[in-house]
Write a structure and sequence with these properties.
single chain; 54 residues; mainly alpha; 56% helix
Length: 54
């Protein structure tokens, strides 16, 4: 049985239920300094997890 394609969904319309980022979230996502800080934090977390496994 085939699924019907959804025809009436438009992005950013009233029936579009996916969360969209606000101005603050967009600013954080495009800020190079914040991205570098997040990169360092994620790498430290990854090193901790890898160190625990050995």
């Amino acid at each position: 049985m085939e699924k019907k394609a959804e025809h009436n969904i438009k992005a950013y319309g009233k029936n579009f239920t996916t969360m969209t980022p606000g101005k603050f979230a967009i600013k954080l996502r495009t800020c190079k300094i914040w991205q570098f800080i997040r990169f360092i934090v994620i790498n430290i977390k990854m090193l901790i997890v890898v160190r625990k496994s050995h």
